[in-house]
Amino acid sequence: MFVTLIISVPNFVYSQIESIDIEHYISTSNREWSDEEIQELEELFAHPLPLNSLTFEEYSVFFFLSEFQKKSLFDFVQKNKPLRTVYELQFVLGFTQETAQLVARMCTLEYTQKSRTSKELIHNGKHTVSAYNSWLGVSDSLYADYMKYPGFALKSSYKYRYQAYNKLYWGVQLKNDMGEATQKGVFSQQYDFASAYIQLRDYKNIVNLVVGDYQTSIGQGLAMRQGGFYAKSMGFSQTTSQSVLKRHSSTNEYLYNRGAGISYAYKTFVFTPFISRKAIDGAAKNDSLVPFQIYKTGLHRTPLELYNKKQVTHTLYGMHAEKQVGQCTFGAAYIHQKISNNIKSWYMQNYSLHYTYFGERTHSYGEIAFDDSFRMAQIHGITHTFSQYIEGQISVRNYNASYTGFMAHGFQEQSNTQNEQGLYMLLRTDITNSIRCTLAHDRFQRPVATATAPNMYGNESLFSAKYTKYRSYSFEYKIAYEIKTEITENQWYAAQTNTNNRIKHTIQFQYEYETLEFRTAYVKAFAHQKNDFFTGFYAGQDIIYKPHKNIHVYVRYAKFNAPYYTRIYVYEHAVQNAYTMPQVLYAGAQWLFVVKCKVLRSCNVQFQAKRIQYANAHEIPEYYAMYGTAQKKQYACIIQYSF
Q: DSSP assignment, residue 146?
């Protein structure tokens, strides 16, 4: 007698993994994304990782996961490897359907414990070459007359990448932003920005080695954090990686180091020395506390930008060490930085002590950082998964009013990691298998008034509810509310209180049927700024047509009316390496068309066309006249070849 046991797995979660696109994922997530993070997602989509063979250190590439989710995924894989199907990922503790689906999309299940020789790493990898161009639909003469820039209305980026077994990487990129002059000279001087790197990972005792342009992130970012979205994101877990040393492969011209760094394992310790020296944009100023003005955009088009281009030298060296004790990881770091020109120098030192703890359901983290005057910034938090369906998080932060950390970016309301106190709380729950709710709240204050920033306190809240039915359709509603109160006082006038608030409602609907997918979005924003009241809206309809697995067509039509104080940020479909989060400003209508074709198995061609017709509801910049009848046209194209 035989008994047959059938285990039913809800494979609708993965039935259309290939149809996942970056724009949909980031637009429905409760967080903000930097252009660099989006490019990292693109790389993971293009070069899936062997999940069964990854070490825990290599899980740092899943930057969109919380530390608890990374540990849960690692423990699940170690316990059940080799995983046979991606369906198993939905059983990882702390994973939602969307998270499991995304990880499945960027991983393969090949499994090997064979160590690779240097010959295999050098000769058996994958080469990728790409050429990206974006241009405006105006003549060069009109662009020069209105913008007064030395270059054309053309942005160009050329990249070369090599990857072998998730162990060895190298790459080169060249870029010119729109309006920047195409220079003449040798190869490295023909473009405004040139970058290169070599990275070796998990080779004998070398955990990570990077030479060239790289990024360093330590603890929760209070001493240093380069890359990623370095600001507050309400509906997303706030923990960052314990220590990250990685290649700089994005087009960001500011947040990176140029030199070398290595993470070396010795017994139960991992030591990471790093060094960097590069020229940055800036100028000296008459300020004893901050004697330099640093320009971070990387743009070199106006006379001031060109005058300050590479006029300041940034020198850095440091050491990071960490040790794992049971379920705890402790780390310490020292960073020495110098910013100088021919006239003066500015020295900074930062120290960091940080920790993480991973329990079966509880994850705690924290960092205490000091500057050279021993002014302190600290953050501590705890995340607990009550069940497969309920997760909570709470964190507290306190940054000294005069704390100084160059390239320090923690969880913060303001642009600088200083002069802030706050309490953040998050609760995420699955009410049913189809309904997921997120509630987040942050209370913050600027306790010390400065010459440029008065006392301030406020609250920010977010609530979202999403209903998903077998991936055929989904509905989501979000409401975000923020209120800030500033108190201005001086010796001549009594204290004055000014309260500003913003409310934003977002509704998104998605329906998928065979080769067609429809996505509808509506955003309504309200703002009370001083004595004025503003409203704005955005309504967009997307149609995605996928007649073949290698051909995708995206069409969007949108109407909007958003003055400055209710400006709305909306993700949009774009060609690879060009995903952005443009702000919807003024009033008008938008058409967007994107087609992506994979030719054979090694060539990828993508094209984008966008037209925005502005209305007369708001005053628009004078240079918009160059578009003619206030109709802005922009195009982009990328050709990518792999071998």
A: H
